[in-house]
Amino acid sequence: MILGLDVSTTCTGFAIIDFEGNLIETYAVRTDKKVNKKMLTHYERLDTLKQKLQETKRKYQIQHIFIEAPLLHMSSNSSTAGTMSKLQAFNGAFSYLVYTMFRKEPIHIQFLSARKTYGVVYSKGMDVKKEVLKLVVKKHPEFVVELTRKGNPIKGTYDRSDALVIANHGLLELNAREEEANS
Q1: What is the 3-state secondary structure (H, E, C) of 78-89?
Q2: Considering 3, 49, 154, 180, which has the largest number of Cβ atoms within 10 A of its Cβ?
């Protein structure tokens, strides 16, 4: 099994696929204040995610782990340097947590590469998250999208779809390595 992870300080997406690319399960773990009534520290967030990782480890034979890499640079309408620094630190701590739990080094995947290999075509002004979700549902009709009263995907849906894209990219990388080794 392959585990794909979309790490964030407020909601982390998990996706498990098999070696044929079949979707086994996706879920999101929220660690924001709306769920827990108070702002959690990074350590409390990691503890929450650790519990979900332990459940995942008990339930599945995870052989490979792929994590969305943190952003490396800012764009004109994205996060501040301080926010990016916090996200990178959190991603690093989470990656170490994954390593210690599974005894496997996670591989970090740039989300732009993952989305490109998944088939996302960018155009100016598009809502990338919505486009990724549409493509995920098209490729994996079993992917469940719950909606709010206003018709928007519930919190965590985009995180689950991004984790699935990361897992699929990881599978492509594994297949490419195997093909290269056999040639």
Answers
A1: CCCHHHHHHHHH
A2: 3
pLDDT in tens, 19-66: 999 999 999 999 887 665 777 888 888 999 999 999 999 999 999 999
Which domain, by its residues, includes 81? 2-182
CATH number of the CATH domain containing 169 = 3.30.420.10
Mean pLDDT over the full length of the chain: 88
Length of the chain: 183
Q: How buried is residue 49: exposed, middle or buried, by Cβ count under 10 Å (0-12/13-18/19+)?
A: buried
Angle at which helices 111-118 and 128-139 pack, to 10 degrees?
Answer: 50
**Mean pLDDT over residues 102-117, rounded?**
91
Tell me: pLDDT of 72 over 70.
Answer: no
Return the DSSP state at 62: -
Of 9, 1, 8, 102, the residue nearest 54 (C-alpha): 102
